[in-house]
Design brief:
Chain A is of the alpha/beta class. Chain A is built from eleven helices and eight strands. Chain A has a single domain, classed as Alpha-Beta Barrel (TIM Barrel), CATH 3.20.20. The C terminus of chain A is likely disordered. The interface between A and B is medium-sized, with 35 and 35 residues.
Chain lengths: 304, 304
Amino acid sequence: MFHLPKKVALEDVTLRDGLQNEDRIFSVHEKLALVRDLIASGVKRIQIGSFVHPAWVPQMSNTDKLFQRLPKNPNVTYTALALNETGLERALRTGVKHLYLGISASETHSRKNNNCTVSEAKKRIVKLIKRTKENNVKIRAGIMMAFGCAYEGKIKEEKVLDIAILYHSLEVDEIDLADTAGLANPKQVFELVTKIKAYTGDIPVSLHLHDTRGMGLANLFAGLHAGISTFDASIGGLGGCPFIPNAAGNIATEDTVFMLSEMGIETGIDYLKICSATKQLETLLGKTLPGRMCHLSENKSRTT
Amino acid sequence: MFHLPKKVALEDVTLRDGLQNEDRIFSVHEKLALVRDLIASGVKRIQIGSFVHPAWVPQMSNTDKLFQRLPKNPNVTYTALALNETGLERALRTGVKHLYLGISASETHSRKNNNCTVSEAKKRIVKLIKRTKENNVKIRAGIMMAFGCAYEGKIKEEKVLDIAILYHSLEVDEIDLADTAGLANPKQVFELVTKIKAYTGDIPVSLHLHDTRGMGLANLFAGLHAGISTFDASIGGLGGCPFIPNAAGNIATEDTVFMLSEMGIETGIDYLKICSATKQLETLLGKTLPGRMCHLSENKSRTT
């Protein structure tokens, strides 16, 4: 048989992993409209942006301003990404209550994305995590390229476990395994998650999946079977790291919600409302997004 | 843990389920070129076409002629679809050694696709199967809409099992569960396959999956876990029944081969060669197909 949870929490990463890969820069006003649509659809965790250098990722340069204007809602967790000290200090000034801090399991990606070795990145993130905890901000600690690297190919499981051990020792609130380049396969997801969870039993593990090779929902299914109940997704399947070739496409929020709902797993999210938001985003971007459910004409007939 | 087979057999259905949904009618010459490409890629089972009335599916009207000109290859099984007596007699005249005969588990689909009730369809297929066996032709007996109907929604498991029991009693060579409308979810695939296999233990069960809702490879994974080792696929993910709204898209042969290969499962198929065939098909059709692997620029770096 297989294991499935009764409920799944989805963190919508459209505003960060989605928009960072688009040429069009969204205004604070436009991003706020998207946040409101996500909340109206029932999304409870929203990744608002990242505190990275505006020269590197100009799409995220209004993240500080955006945080000042987010709708107050005690049921919604707003979170963001910070990768270095400068970013963390900017984040803390916004009063953010939840942050995503992460390092890469790949030496090449670490150099390209963060300009340091994995070992140096570990030293840095220990400082960042401690500083974040001092400010009573919850931490989701990410391991990028956990399932393979766009530059290096296979990543040894020990390298991933090694970072998870560090996070566990620092008592972070959640550990996220990110398939940053969309290279994971379901067998690998099941095996790696099982190994990581065997070590970090008391700390929840989440998955960040890309659908680059069409295996996104297969990997989600393998993750559920391995005991994961928190996943990232973006509306329409927008997404991808700007520094990784062909990494485009997180798993689509609406497709994920639909699949989970069909299997009797609650998310609290109305996938038809997400489909409407995706349609609006497609209009703004002037292109069709890879998500499936928003393009099916009969999707009027089903609700979550 | 989960179960995975060491080898998987893929039946390529591009020439039938793929091409029947396209406006463009492919000549015998063009279809033969595709057959040769599939064989060169390592495909061992090829669904060549269907023996249906040319007024209904004109794309399949040259199936008889095509059979006369297929390359002789003892390692390759050529097969085709027949849905009624006239079609079966046409098929038998070609000297075909393997046939797909099938009925629908949905009353509405049965009426629309075959102009009869499920009960009448059962009576008819008993005759077809007996006539086929008399001619020493192997039979893959299909259950269409096994996981849900585009018109009716849910299909009771008993209706599917009931047809499987009939097929089992007639000693067909393989039973195929077809997710004709792409409505299956992985939990359902695992559960229904497990129930069917518990009854038909000695007869192999195969799966025909569509990726309409992005769950195609997740369903494949669930099928593997439930003990299935034969699946249909079409290059580029071409496909869909012309009489079902939004049914488009079998699972893509290249994406399926890639995922299986990444999990250490052999198919004997070179997915890069399939990617080339998909690119040629896209040129002929003048459109981009949904398969993922053929559109990744770095796919040069990996072989099956």
